[in-house]
Design brief:
The protein is 41% helix and 20% strand. The protein has 398 residues and is of the alpha/beta class.
Length: 398
């Protein structure tokens, strides 16, 4: 436990963090990349350029300050971030570098308000938080490399197959170049691949769900081509994978990580609910369920814009036809449609009346998840039976 004076000083910065937190973290990233450019290949440059990463860090720093008296309440957030860090290859030696630039940024952004005592207090608080992450990540690294087929760091894989799943999503089947076995990950977890991005001049990592059940001869990732918008550029890595990587090409791949996965200790009915590319972990979970517990009822529910962007349609049709315990509901924003799809908005109250004893797994964009979570809460589904993954900063990145 940090001493009372340190906690008092950290809590005193909460109003400043609420007002200037994003400015502080934006300055921090700029400073760190200027002085330690080698770290650019660990972080998602696109999320820094759009402000997503500085905003996420600012919220995390604020949450730590607000809960400095009892940081244990942040355990779920620590687990989420530790898994992401392990996937990206962030190690104990990186934390002193981050701490140095964070404390320097506090001085440079806050100016006279950043007294020596305040900066020193944040140094102590940061050190305590760093120790929590280092311990959690060390455990993840040890577990990843000490299992059959496991490894630490980057392992070279070859693209064995490349298969279009929809107008936007392509699957890459990856086989280990060393010929060794693959680990038994949990259905719903992700891996990280990194590629060289010429316009940036650095390697860039991205986390993608392993979109098939474990136990296959290859790891499969299913990548959505991220188009640009009025405010964001096209996805550098997703477009490069679609356009420049083909069968026989090599990729650096990290071990599987992630705290969002199918709970195989339960025998309750399962609802797999997804929007857009959030379908990828749901397909992995579905495949695992029908392979290992065919008696467990499953409802597979998916919403997407139209039939052209529906991924895994033929596979899902086949699974439903072969496994009577599986039902699926498909919603499109726009037509035309063919059975079982329907045009319209997913209505949780219609699909699951109050009193459902199912476990719900949700994955998709933030707005989609907010709507579905509210609906499930209104139906009285206990929080312990709702499991979510957001595909954005703070979740798996597409």
């Amino acid at each position: 436990m940090l001493d009372a004076r340190v906690r008092e000083l950290v809590k005193a910065t909460i109003p400043v963090l609420k007002e200037h937190g994003v400015a502080l973290t934006t300055h921090f990233y700029q400073r760190m990349f200027r002085h330690n450019p080698e770290l650019q290949q660990i972080f998602n440059r696109s999320h820094n350029e759009t402000g997503k990463q500085p905003t996420a860090l600012a919220l995390s720093v604020l949450a730590y300050a607000e809960n400095i008296d009892n940081p244990a309440v942040l355990a779920p957030v620590v687990a989420l971030i530790a898994n992401k860090h392990a996937s990206l290859g962030i190690r104990a030696e990186h934390y002193p570098i981050v701490g140095k630039h964070l404390l320097a940024s506090i001085r440079e952004v806050l100016g006279d308000a950043a007294s020596d005592e305040l900066v020193n207090a944040w140094g102590v608080a940061y050190g305590a938080l760093a120790d929590i992450f280092i311990e959690a990540e060390t455990q993840l690294y040890d577990a990843a490399c000490n299992q059959d087929g496991g490894w630490s760091g980057w392992r070279t894989f070859r693209i064995a197959r490349k298969e279009a799943e929809s107008a936007e999503i392509t699957s890459f089947y990856l086989e280990a170049c060393d010929g060794g076995p693959l680990p038994q990950y949990r259905a719903g977890q992700y891996t990280c691949v990194r590629v060289f991005v010429p316009e940036l001049g650095v390697m860039q990592p991205r986390q993608y769900t392993l979109s098939d059940a474990p136990g296959q001869p290859c790891l499969r990732i299913s990548v959505k081509r991220e188009a640009g918008t009025a405010t964001t550029p096209p996805g550098r890595v997703s477009n490069r994978l679609h356009d420049a990587y083909h069968v026989g090409d090599l990729l650096d791949v990290a071990p599987p990580f992630g705290e969002f996965y199918l709970d195989e200790t339960q025998d309750t009915p399962v609802v797999l609910l997804s929007g857009g590319v959030g379908i990828t972990p749901m397909v992995a979970m579905l495949n695992r369920l029908v392979q290992t517990v065919p008696q467990r009822p499953v409802q597979f529910v998916h919403a997407c814009r139209n039939a052209d962007v529906l991924a895994f349609g033929p596979h899902l049709t086949q699974v439903v036809a072969q496994h009577p315990q599986v039902r699926w509901h498909l919603f499109h924003d726009q037509g035309p449609v063919s059975a079982p799809a329907q045009v319209g908005t997913l209505d949780a109250a219609t699909l699951w009346p109050q009193g459902s004893d199912a476990d719900f797994y949700l994955c998709g964009p933030v707005g989609f998840l907010q709507v579905q979570l509210r609906a499930l809460q209104q139906l009285g589904v206990p929080a312990a039976r709702i499991h979510t993954e957001v595909f954005d900063t703070g979740g798996v990145q597409a």
